[in-house]
Please model this.
Amino acid sequence: MARTPVTDVHTHIYSEPFGGLLLWGVDELLTYHYLVAEVTRATAIPFETFWAMNKQEQADFIWSELFIKRSPVSEACRGVLTALEMLGLDNSSRDLNAFRDYFNKTSVAQHIDTVFERANVESVVMTNDPFDPIEYPIWMNKFERDPRFHAALRIDALLNDWTANHTKLIEWGYNVESTLNVRSMAEVRRFLTEWLERTSALYIAASLPPSFAFPEESWRADLISECVLPVAAEFNVPFAMMVGVKKNINPALKLAGDGVGLSDVDTIMRLCAAYPDNKFMVTMLARENQHELCVLARKFPNLCLFGCWWFLNNPSLIDEMTRMRLELLGLSVIPQHSDARILDQLLYKWQHSRALIANVLTDKYLDLLQTGWTLTEEEIARDVKLLLGGNFWDFLKR
Model:
């Protein structure tokens, strides 16, 4: 497990040409939105007071409150320490400024190489949103592609708020109207086609609310059926759906203010049944959805489950979900993705997940041995290679 390179199928990290979109370093690790939510809860600091601090001040505050005044037992805190340790830093010193010095003495390019090597990550899939005003001009100009960074075309803005965002399409030269008439649909298909070609995206993706339903009378359902799925089928790329996030349940927390809700698995069932020529990658945010989703995946080979997303990326839940998936689906799943927003998170998220997946596999192999079945190291290496990337690449080729 440790020596097999991984393909991380969903991240929010970027290659060097994306400039400020690529986050790295100890201050970014400490001000990750998980830790922002944790520290505001622990201290009851007024939100406006916290946001009035600059990033280094926020990091100092979080370090003091969550690592010095309290033991850093949460997964988000532990993750920071694992990342620092894997970079060769001495956590026992508790010297935040010494950690900063380490990052200040390296370049972005060097640090990317270091993180990929020590995390044993072969490649990652970015989240690429044309509606992001910072990202859009980068794609519109030529830049040297880093082969370790693949694209995924993210279309949340298109599906979840057509009224607000169709004007962007008009600005970019697409002849759409506020109503989704025949011409508008054709232009949206042209937009998707051009961006798949521009980015060489491996899949089309969207984060969707718990209320997501299909079919229904909505702009979103019409865009999916008339635009997204036809173009995805034409390019033979999956439509990846991440379902179950409640946006901004506490707006004062900004990025940390999202929540989780129970979703309707029947929506995924109807999509898989109605569009057998399309491929779907699905992860859901609510723990309560996982069993039904696993059973559904047994019935539809065009459905691939991936990762333990967001609030599920905790050891106890990763263990539970991985066991359930292997018991119901065998090895035909993508057990994990990092969802990393900061480059250095690749270190801890894969270190922790590899250990958890290995524990589950060990138990399953022991069960096999008790039946008289035999296993070779080559067979185990084959299985691990499937779980850490092979299944993803095989699904793309179908």
User: Anything to note?
Assistant: The chain has one domain: 6-21+119-397. The beta strands are 6-8, 121-125, 149-150, 153-154, 204-208, 239-243, 245-246, 259-260, 280-284, 303-305. The longest strand covers residues 121-125. The radius of gyration is 22 Å.
